[in-house]
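Hey,
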Amino acid sequence: MTKAKKNLPIGKRRELERSVEILTESFATAVSTRQAPRLRDGKILKIILFGSYARGDWVDDPVGRYFSDFDLLVVVDHEDLADTEFWYDAEQRLLAETVSGQYLRTPVSFIVHSLDDVNHKLEHGRYFFMDIVRDGVSLLHTPGVSFVKPQPLAPHTALKEASDYFEEWSSSAASFQRSAAHSIADGDLKLAAFHLHQEAEHLYNCLLLVLTLYTPKSHKLIVLRRLVEPLVPRLTEVWPHETKFEKRAFELLRAAYVKARYSKHYKVTEEELAWLTDRIGMLKEIVLDACEKHLAALAKAAESESAS
């Protein structure tokens, strides 16, 4: 991590400082009432900016209504502290301040991992974390705490892992696609919406795992989109948001993981499901194409390694 925060515009720096403040304050509150020492005395060891703002290729387009997010990696000192229960308040505060626009204009997305977990991933050649270590911008650092030296995967190992992920996750996505079609035919529209959510989630996970060998433990499509769309820019075309119908339909899909199963107020129409099915079909086409091209490149690299 050689880049400095000072390379960012002053307004963005202030937003990042506010984001770090919210994360640290909310975390301190979350652990303060815990009895177990590993939780009560838990610490944030590092906060690292990664993604487009770290690389310098972010988008801030009010006309086109597209804005890159702040992507943050929060590193804690115990695996239990990565659980979502410790970060719910931080997530809600960040969202509220972004909506109000008082202190934050840029959406903030963050993932949480323990130091041991990050180091394990670096030792096992996880591209996602290797890129963060290479390109990330340190926003909070505990003296004396460092990452291990990344160990790149051999091409044949990378090919085997990516191929296994592709087979597993593309198959599960196809299974949810069939389940959604059956539910629509049976007239169970809420269950169909849940299955479509799962198809989209599994397609996003498939792409992340094939291209980066990593995916976060999240069912939130917004989180997954923020990670995959920079990898394959065509994915931004999947979910248009120019009309009320388009916005509502995606919101129904986003909420379906919980509300389609548990809320009696959740309503979705056949027209909305038809549109969602069509858009997820486009998502599938892009994901499979990107995965197949990446696997072909890995196969070529593995072949060159064997030849040498």
